[in-house]
């Protein structure tokens, strides 16, 4: 019983270097954002105020802060790769490869309890760290001047702004454990875990815009998009049929010229397809749910595989 109760502490002791590295990463990122908001954001806002009242001005500080946030989004979004690398190479595969796992199973610790501890302790650490990363990034992003803001639809920014960051990390943990059990060797498990997570991330990023019904706006003229809307498509209506980005472009000029141009090409109106800012959370939560479903499936498969092999 003592061996079972001490499993979480054993996992923490065995993986102290990884825990220290993850904690250091979270602390360093937090410090970077605090510095950026305290020093760079104020300069950027002052710069934009100056530009609003002068014909000529510099936007170097604004661009500087925008760069910090863009790279910050990349770091937060892809932090799950570090989790995937560690999980695939160290969490399960290395212990199977070295025989440490089988030794634990002979010390009154069942394989199922062993795997539960192996996953639960890192999952808690990863979740807490991910929550800090997301909270800090959202705080920094909210201070980003609108002028050079990439918007919420940026590939990395979209993930970094919410719980999808934690979902990807937990999924990487589960996939890494499953790969470790399947292959039993650290390096092959590492490669498979990274490949699976890369495929999942890129696939969902490609399909992201369609995870929630988009809004289509049509009219006789081009309409301005709502503030911070994510434009997916735009073009003209030719006899009621959508033509995206026609070669001849939009008809411009005087009213008479526009009317003549539209008649020549059969243009009966314009259309725009977009996701408004209000759709951020539905889109984000659907993607988060899909990633967590994959994580759950990988976890269930790992336990089923372990039971079968140790029955």
Average pLDDT confidence is 83
What portion of the residues fall into strands of 2 or more residues?
5-15%
The run of helices and strands is HHHHHHHHHHHEEEHEH
Uncertain spans: none
Helix/sheet category: alpha+beta
> What's the story with the biggest beta sheet?
4 strands, antiparallel
End-to-end CA span: 21 Å
DSSP strand count: 4
Order of strands, widest sheet = 1-4-2-3
Radius of gyration: 25 Å
Helical percentage: 55-70%
- Gross geometry: elongated
Question: Features of this protein?
Answer:
311 residues; alpha+beta; 2 domains; 4-stranded antiparallel sheet; 13 helices; elongated
Quick structural summary:
With 311 residues, the protein is an alpha+beta fold. It contains 13 helices and 4 strands.
Layout of SSEs?
Elements: H1 2-5, H2 7-14, H3 16-52, H4 60-77, H5 80-91, H6 93-98, H7 100-105, H8 111-142, H9 155-160, H10 164-183, H11 186-207, E1 215-219, E2 230-238, E3 241-244, H12 255-265, E4 267-275, H13 280-310
Antiparallel strand pairs: 1-4, 2-3, 2-4
Explain this structure to me?
The protein is of the alpha+beta class. 68% of the residues lie in helices and 9% in strands. It has two domains: 240 residues, no CATH class; 46 residues, no CATH class. It has 13 helices and four strands. A four-stranded antiparallel beta sheet has the order 1-4-2-3. The longest helix has 37 residues. The relative contact order is 0.12.
């Amino acid at each position: 019983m003592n061996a079972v109760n001490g499993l979480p502490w054993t996992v923490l002791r065995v993986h102290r270097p990884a825990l220290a590295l993850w904690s250091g990463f979270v602390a360093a990122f937090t410090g970077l954002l605090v510095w950026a908001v305290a020093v760079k954001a104020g300069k950027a806002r002052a710069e934009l105020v100056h530009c609003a009242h002068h014909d000529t001005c510099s936007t170097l500080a604004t661009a500087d802060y925008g760069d910090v946030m863009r790279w910050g989004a990349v770091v937060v979004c892809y932090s799950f790769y570090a989790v995937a690398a560690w999980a695939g190479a160290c969490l399960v595969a290395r212990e199977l490869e070295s025989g440490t796992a089988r030794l634990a199973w002979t010390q009154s610790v069942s394989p199922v309890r062993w795997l539960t501890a192996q996953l639960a302790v890192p999952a808690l650490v990863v979740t807490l760290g991910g929550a800090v990363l997301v909270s800090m990034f959202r705080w920094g992003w909210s201070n980003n001047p609108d002028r050079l803001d990439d918007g919420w639809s940026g590939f990395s920014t979209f993930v970094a702004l919410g719980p999808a960051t934690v979902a990807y990390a937990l999924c990487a943990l589960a996939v890494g454990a499953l790969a470790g059990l399947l292959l039993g060797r650290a390096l092959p498990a590492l490669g498979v875990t990274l490949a699976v997570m890369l495929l999942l991330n890129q696939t969902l990023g490609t399909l992201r815009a369609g995870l929630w019904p988009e809004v289509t706006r049509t009219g006789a003229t081009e309409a301005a998009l709502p503030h911070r809307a994510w434009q997916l498509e735009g073009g003209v209506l030719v006899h009621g049929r959508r033509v995206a980005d026609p070669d001849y472009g939009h008809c411009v000029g005087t009213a008479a010229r526009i009317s003549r141009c539209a008649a020549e090409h059969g243009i009966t109106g314009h259309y725009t397809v977009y996701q408004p800012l209000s759709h951020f959370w539905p889109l984000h939560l659907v993607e988060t749910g899909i990633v967590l479903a994959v994580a759950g499936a990988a976890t269930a498969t790992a336990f089923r595989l372990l039971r079968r092999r140790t029955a």
